[in-house]
């Protein structure tokens, strides 16, 4: 896409220059014809001598021609236009790294809201609407807006919503670029509208339960979060990242290899203390019978279930359970979380009679950006780029159209 944009801009500039030069040459010919033949005609009519004709001709040649002046002026104008275009391209390349709060680029400069970003706006995302068994085709930025609506509460801080918009855009750009088809129940779509990929709310359902005034405010903040980050994605070493995120941390995020098998350099454990006080999902207790507990873990016993033997063997850098032994069997914290349907892999437990109460801390896998942590950072005055740089170690925000190799059949 980058080569295509550069090539197209070069061709358009060349055509414009050639056309201008052709006009200039034509005007020079006309000028010379009219100005050089006029004195000769006068000389013939008056019977002037050859010397007089030469003097007049010489005098005319010394005058600055309109064509020459026009050519210089045009070159100056073309040079200024070229410099403005170059400034626009530089702004598109570097403007996305500017911190929010700085003066916005001038209208028409070709910065984040124009130029390269507009090219990506042509890309279509095919979303499988699960509950309606249909595929919705929407522009990429419309899809991003629907994901922000589905993944974050509307009363979150604007900078948190912007961080979510950039993460959501990164996810879909990477998926389209890699032609990733994982998790799809149908062949003619790119993503579902579920947490398997990203929760997406169609336009017609946005703010359905709100009154008119509330809906207008809601749409305005969604539009603002999307528009102010238009075309921006998170990259690491020139490639779109796995922009994973989750609801609430236990006070820390997790290293990727502590939950998945792969060590990813930008998915490192960092403190996330904001979640503890802000998130309503920070702490949760579920209670089940010991029989249910053993059954879900696949532990069978020939006797009546008694008090289980449970011991934590290892914890992760993110303070979650890495390994735990239950009734002589070893599990990973992730296994226990998934088998028991827990909110987090950090948990404590208490056995009372034939029941066990398990208290979890945090909500989600814990890798990447904490959404409630992002909101906490925004409340402290941090902007979207600060938030993303904090949760995705060593990554940077750039324009997606500079990287994404999206095929032409994906465009409107």
UniProtKB/TrEMBL annotation:
It comes from the Bacteria. It comes from Paenibacillus thailandensis. Pfam families: SpoIID. This is Stage II sporulation protein D. InterPro entries: Bact_Sporulation_Assoc, SpoIID/LytB, SpoIID/LytB_N, Spore_II_D_firmicutes. The gene is spoIID. Residues 84-100 have a biased composition (Basic and acidic residues). NCBIfam families: SpoIID_LytB (TIGR02669), spore_II_D (TIGR02870). The lineage of its organism: Bacteria, Bacillati, Bacillota, Bacilli, Bacillales. Residues 131-236 form the Sporulation stage II protein D amidase enhancer LytB N-terminal domain. Residues 67-115 are annotated as: Disordered. The chain crosses the membrane at residues 36-57. Keywords: Membrane, Transmembrane, Transmembrane helix.
